[in-house]
Specification:
By secondary structure, the chain is α/β, with parallel strands linked by helices. It folds into 3 domains: about 20-140, Copper Amine Oxidase, Chain A, domain 1; about 155-310, Rhodanese-like domain (Oxidized Rhodanese, domain 1, 3-Layer(aba) Sandwich); about 325-470, Oxidized Rhodanese, domain 1 (3-Layer(aba) Sandwich), CATH 3.40.250.10. About 30% of the residues lie in helices and about 25% in strands. The protein has 15 helices and 27 strands. The protein has a 5-stranded antiparallel sheet with strand order 5-6-7-8-9, with helices on one face. It has a 5-stranded parallel sheet with strand order 14-20-19-15-16, with helices on both faces. Strand 8 and strand 9 form a beta hairpin. Helix 8 packs across helix 13. The radius of gyration is 26 Å and the shape is globular. The N and C termini lie far apart (about 70 Å).
Length: about 475
Amino acid sequence: MKKLVVLVVALALVVGGLLPVGPQGTEASTIRILIDGQPMTLQVAPVIRNGRVLVPFRAMFETFGATVNWQEATETVTGQLGTTSISLRLNRPEAVVNGRAVRLDVAPIVLGGRTLVPLRFVAENLGADVRWEESTQTVVVVRQVALRRVRIAGNAQSDKLAAYANQDAFISPAELKQLMDRNEPDIVVVGVINPTLAIIPLHAARSPIAGSFTVWRADYSGTGSPLALAPAVSGMASSREVMENLLSRAGATPQSMIVVYALDNMHDAARFMWQIRQLGHRDVRLLDGGLNAWQAANFPTGSFARLSEQPVRAAYRSPDFNPAVNNVRLGDVVHALQNPNEWVVIDTRSADEFNGRPSASSRGAFGTGRLIGSVHIEWVAANAADRTLRTREEIVAAYSAAIRGRKVIVFCQSGVRSAHTQVVLRDVLGLEVYNFDGSWIEWSYAASEFSANQVPESVRRTVLQHTEQWTDNRGELR
């Protein structure tokens, strides 16, 4: 009898492992469907068949902007979006996509007088990404965004950007001006500029790009991150809700082209860009040379408009929020240091900070020092003298010896300067690279006496074992 029970359990496990990946045994009424962050409204609730979520065909196709045709004689529904055609027949486990027959895991059915079709199959064949969140019983659908190519033929800056691994992550002042001149729709421009500079007479910060909004660090980062070791760790990314609120005030949608720029220190724009990407936003671009280059070209400037003070213009919802995108935590950094054949950790701080000397940039940390085994390449290594990015060949020359085919983690004081390097290595060179959001503030907190009884002693010992040139501030931030 005991052997029989074991055999039955084993067979159940085998059969269970053969079922399609997706929601299992979930009541339809508990399933949520988010399309680009917005809840999908359905007259008939979704149902699950064979581990697949089915939804009314008309609602599914029309959400994507596809035209819909129903043929009563053959009980066939067809959706057409651009050059993509999808036909599904009632109770038939086969579809036709652009004239090609494709086998289905589950056939369309009729329920409550509506024809329901498999959500994942339709969405993915219309170019969307689909993900099932087990913890919230949610289907997350993120539609493709048509990226607008903005290069200007024969323009030297455009030619430089076109050579980058992901040229659509960058835009030049001339290209942005061209889009503005032809009133290109759904473009949001945000400058990451310190507002205290804007009160100084004749300061460049007083004249941001015409029609743009401005934000500063306190608007989108600070304390209280759920990913931080402790509340004392500051400077980490704010919540999804904070970022959604800012972009709602800018009137952004998930389909918007969001252009971010900075003044002088271009790393601030890269940091804001890095956080927008965590929302799952597809089209966000860094203005090459920032406000410096825009003003040098004598392009139109306007008044300072702090985004946090603007009225809400839209209801922006994150298409696919994931705080782990391009991000690592302290334990990941330790793992990287312990596996130098696979990983390299790049310290993007100044030479003084790397050598453990106090400086203006090191204020706010819990001590000074560096990570044993890290490589020092200051963030400005990617910039030309005029603060535009260097050519791809120049950036390869600056970083290739340190990287040598390894995956990369970058850090600085609070993840701002390193965000610039993360964008450069990811989008100029096409590398796998992550920003350590907590950066030296979190690392020094874990190493310091100030963290005693706040973090496990084993964590503190491990961090200290991987730290050199260390001086503890003993709880006194400076």
